[in-house]
Amino acid sequence: MRTSTINSILACLGTACLVSCGNQKQSLVPNKKPNILFIVVDDLGYTDLSVMGSPFYETPNIDSLARSGTIFTNGYATCAVCSPSRASLLNGQFTARHGLTQYEGAKSGQAWKELNRHTKLLPPEYKHHLHREDVILPEVLKDNGYTTFFAGKWHLGSKADHSLPTDHGFDINQGGYEKGGPYSGGYFSPFNNPQMMDYPEEKGMSLSMKLAKETSTFIREQKDSTFLAYLSFYAVHSPIQTTQAKWKKYRDKAERMGIAETGFEMERVLPARKYQDNPVYAGLIEQVDEAVGSVLQTLRDLDLDKNTIVVFTSDNGGVTSGDNFSTNQLDLRGGKGYQWEGGLRVPYFIYVPWMSQKGTHNQVPVSGADLFPTLLDLADIPLQPEHHADGVSLEPLLKGGRIAERPLYWHYPHYGNQGGEPVSIMRKGSWKIIHYWEDGHTELYDLDTDLGETKDRSTEKEILTLEMKEELLAWLEAMQTEYAEEDASWNETAWKQKLENNRNILMPRLEKQREKMLSPDWQPNTNWWGSQL
């Protein structure tokens, strides 16, 4: 299943695209500006949905949404970690341009070294939050008559920075602040979130459903206005937590599918999960799916589904290494934090109710930076390329047309907690180059024939590699971006020892944790809230 799943899906989707795009018809355009429901799931991998090929996770509500609109099979986040990608979703720029190249709160320079990371390079300083002068999607929509609402994970600044959602065009903020996870209270009420009220009747409610509840309340209150509801789930970020019933459902399913003797293998730096068989993570995904279904039902109940655009995506790939080592991306290599497709490719769906999109699949490479201009176009608001400088409107693709071919760029001059290295990347057509800043070498992959990035073609395609590298470096120079620097006192011996420890100490510990979680009598604690190991 693992080696053929995505290739089989893409082959089918390619056929579907030829049929559905050619037959696409437009329904009547609404006589008022459309509402927008923008859904972002944290750390949800490309294949972490059944509609995207997972044989393990069950996501009927999200699947139905995807099949009602356009599935972009080459949809990308602009970064393999959260804050940079989240900034791009809002400002329409690649990370090298907007400068927020690392997740908020990460150390750089000597402060990084003092954490005993033992890396060859020292990561550079970076922009830590959105600035007041940054013009982002909700501000433009608000200027055009929209009431704007934010719920969930923000991770783009704090109250002290004057960079909460309400500082950037959102009228209402439920739960968004500087933290990147539900660290105050976890995934079950009470949540102890300083930007959101807890209520006694919510005891035991999942955080995903709480955010859905607040979003639905906003939609009901604004049903006669025009609104943006930006629903940004904290899930499925660590700590992974679920209920006993959901854990048992997926533990039993894993057993029926056949539990492999070992569950991890070494990547370059950290162990990586080999299979989708984590029952707690599966339960957490199902909680998100239930929450999404709840909000979509609210739209239907209020007869707003006929004039509400729905966007669904993730901020980066699923976590195969680091954090809770939660998932696997089937045919894609790596996951969150990594430079490979598993870290960058994400679920990417757009539903426009007045377009007959059902069954449409599109293989054009698109980016999270494209959503800002796309939504302006769909709302008949003039584009603002001076702000969404790297994003392009995907409205022509949604209508069955074309957009100009262009390269996509990534710049991550940092080390990821999940094993990622300082790299810059460009995809052009089917070709993808990865330039490594530690030693200056460049890898080249043909994603049409090697989705798993197993065969470096840089030696074979030397001229193409050089041309793409020159184009990438010229673009980075134009962006005046920052780069990692050599650590003059790098301790190579300590670094090699760390890698050995990851293999000989960490990986066996992960295997034992997996074995416990999949055992029929596993009991993480007395109440099951906080069911991570």
Automatic annotation (TrEMBL):
CDD domains in the cross-refs: ARS_like (cd16144)
EC number annotated for this UniProt entry: 3.1.6.-
Enzyme class: hydrolase
The Sulfatase N-terminal domain, residue ranges: 34-381
Cofactor needs: Ca(2+)
Keywords: Calcium, Hydrolase, Metal-binding, Signal
Domain of life according to the entry: Bacteria
Pfam name, any one: Sulfatase
GO molecular function: arylsulfatase activity; metal ion binding
Family: Belongs to the sulfatase family.
Protein name: Sulfatase, family S1-16
Originating organism: Zobellia galactanivorans (strain DSM 12802 / CCUG 47099 / CIP 106680 / NCIMB 13871 / Dsij)
Native organism taxonomy: Bacteria, Pseudomonadati, Bacteroidota, Flavobacteriia, Flavobacteriales
